[in-house]
Design a protein that fits this description.
Strand content: 5-15%
Distance between the termini: 21 Å
Largest sheet: 5 strands, parallel
Oligomer: single chain
Strand order of the largest sheet: 2-6-1-7-8
Bound molecules: cytidine-5'-diphosphate
CATH superfamily: P-loop containing nucleotide triphosphate hydrolases
CATH topology: Rossmann fold
Number of strands: 8
Number of helices: 9
Shape: globular
Helix content: 40-55%
Structural class: alpha/beta
CATH class: Alpha Beta
Low-confidence stretches: none
Number of domains: 1
Length: 209
């Protein structure tokens, strides 16, 4: 199990994915996009004709699936890299991600990925700092102004993003929230490099302590 984990949570459009992969490049670490895992399970359920509200059937998909997030996102050998960003998935993923059995299966896999990671790992999502890796070396809560987040999410549209954010923050199991000891970083008006440097500074502070 690697001790070198940087956990990043935040709402849609806060810059998590972009920052996480730039940060991983900068450090020579790997990155785990946990949102892609929930999206892949959602794609597969829809592909199999399963109703996202059928909690047991979706949980079985989550439990049994072979999910890869790198270099492209695939599930059970099917490439879903582009499909997971479509409107149908944007809508259905909130229901799938609120399913406690799905979450249990994903958390277990995410910890297994870290357990096999020889180097450092940047993990981004909604419950990484609070549930999956509460003892991560660095915990970051990324935010940005609502205007900025909507702008970054141009394709998905403001209403869909707002609906997902509301669902993510108000669900019963592992809602999106800032962990008490996470560093909050507002990325509005900052470049990717500036955010990356700020997180690297946080990492360096942990080493020198
Ligand atoms: O594209 P965006 O950054 O907005 O979202 P994402 O990271 O791809 O995650 C898509 C959806 O998966 C979120 O809206 C959450 O419902 C769910 N998710 C989650 O519940 N827990 C995570 N650790 C990651 C994503």
């Amino acid at each position: 199990m690697t001790d070198d984990i940087i956990a990043i949570d935040g709402p849609a459009g806060s810059g998590k994915s972009t920052v996480a992969s730039a940060l991983a490049d900068r450090l020579g670490w790997n990155v785990l996009d946990t949102g892609a895992m929930y999206r892949a399970v959602t794609s597969e359920a829809l592909f199999l004709g399963i109703d996202p509200d059928d909690a047991d059937a979706v949980a079985r998909v989550a439990h049994d699936a072979d999910i890869r997030t790198r270099p492209r996102v695939s599930i059970n050998g099917r490439d879903v890299h582009d499909e997971i960003r479509t409107d149908v998935v944007n809508v259905a993923v909130s229901v799938v991600a609120a399913n406690p059995a799905v979450r249990a299966a994903m958390v277990q896999r995410q910890r297994a990925v870290a357990a096999e990671e020889p180097g450092g790992l940047v993990v981004e999502g909604r419950d990484i700092t609070t549930v999956v890796f509460p003892r991560a070396r660095v915990k970051i809560y990324l935010t940005a102004s609502p205007y900025e987040r909507a702008r970054r999410r141009g394709d998905e549209g403001h209403e869909s993003v707002a609906r997902r954010d509301h669902a993510d923050s108000s669900r019963e199991t592992s809602p999106l929230r800032q962990a008490d000891d996470a560093v909050a970083l507002d990325t509005t008006g900052l470049s990717v490099d500036q955010v990356v440097e700020e997180i690297v500074r946080c990492l360096e502070n942990t080493t020198s302590n």
